[in-house]
């Protein structure tokens, strides 16, 4: 039986966005993110992180440094009883990438490659899945991949891409959790 997944952006959703975070000491979990992930995990959603990491391609940090931070992040989640099925990342940038990283990759959001690849690997039903992102490029990737519900955690700007677009939620996870608990998203 196909599974449902919660696709999660990293910078700005899992952790506070501070422009190309790659050091453990700079990684600050967003308020409420553990509760949100536990809620969806208990509802049977696979948790899959999809993150643009052009800081690698730009030469700001290495893939090794990204993997070291990712291993630490996953350990913190495990300590909270949260199991992340996969972390998909795209190190490329079409203009600013250096050497092999200068590439217009289908896996860099807003392209849907990371979503489609992980959905295939884990037999995910995208029509039963959800995406949470902090930029319209995240939402666009979800829409292009056919993710059913794409939620934008915004800092209050009203960004709408089209009628199926994200529900713009104030940049406050408690709101999202309360929306969910009130059944607005009837998950
Ligand atoms: O998990 P995310 O939000 O996909 O990661 C975003 C960061 O990699 C990085 O993204 C953008 O950089 P590029 O335009 O891709 O070079 C910027 O928004 C940076 O501020 C983010 O840290
Ligand atoms: Mg982000
Ligand atoms: Zn993003």
UniProtKB/TrEMBL annotation:
InterPro entries: HAD-like_sf (IPR036412), HAD-SF_hydro_IIIA (IPR006549), HAD_sf (IPR023214), Heptose_bisP_phosphatase (IPR004446), Histidinol-phos (IPR006543). One of its GO terms (molecular function) is metal ion binding. It catalyses: D-glycero-alpha-D-manno-heptose 1,7-bisphosphate + H2O = D-glycero-alpha-D-manno-heptose 1-phosphate + phosphate. The active site is at residues 9, 11. Its cofactor is Zn(2+); Mg(2+). Zn(2+) binds at residue 107. The record marks 108 as: Contributes to substrate recognition. It comes from the Bacteria. It is found in: Cytoplasm. One of its GO terms (cellular component) is cytoplasm. Keywords: Carbohydrate metabolism, Cytoplasm, Hydrolase, Magnesium, Metal-binding, Zinc. Its EC number is 3.1.3.-. Pathway: Nucleotide-sugar biosynthesis; GDP-D-glycero-alpha-D-manno-heptose biosynthesis; GDP-D-glycero-alpha-D-manno-heptose from D-glycero-alpha-D-manno-heptose 7-phosphate: step 2/3. One of its GO terms (biological process) is carbohydrate metabolic process. SUPFAM superfamilies: HAD-like. Substrate binds at residues 9-11, 17-20, 51-54, 108-109, 135. Mg(2+) binds at residues 9, 11, 134-135. The record marks 51, 109 as: Stabilizes the phosphoryl group. Belongs to the gmhB family. This is D,D-heptose 1,7-bisphosphate phosphatase. It comes from Paenibacillus psychroresistens. The lineage of its organism: Bacteria, Bacillati, Bacillota, Bacilli, Bacillales.
């Amino acid at each position: 039986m196909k599974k449902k997944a919660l696709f999660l952006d990293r910078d700005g959703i899992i952790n506070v966005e501070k422009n190309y975070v790659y050091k453990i000491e700079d990684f600050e979990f967003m308020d409420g993110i553990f509760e949100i992930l536990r809620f969806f995990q208990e509802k049977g959603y696979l948790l899959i992180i999809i993150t643009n990491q052009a800081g690698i391609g730009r030469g700001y940090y290495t893939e090794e440094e990204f993997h070291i931070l990712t291993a630490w992040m996953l350990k913190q989640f495990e300590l909270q009883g949260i199991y992340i099925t996969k972390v998909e990342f795209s190190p490329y940038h079409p203009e600013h990438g250096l050497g092999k990283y200068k590439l217009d990759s289908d896996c860099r959001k807003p392209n849907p490659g990371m979503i489609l690849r992980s959905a295939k690997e884990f037999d995910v039903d995208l029509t039963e899945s959800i995406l949470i992102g902090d930029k319209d490029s995240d939402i666009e990737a979800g829409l292009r991949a056919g993710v059913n519900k794409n939620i934008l955690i915004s800092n209050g700007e009203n960004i709408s891409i089209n009628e199926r677009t994200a529900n713009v939620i104030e940049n406050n996870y408690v709101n999202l959790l309360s929306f969910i608990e009130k059944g607005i998203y009837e998950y």
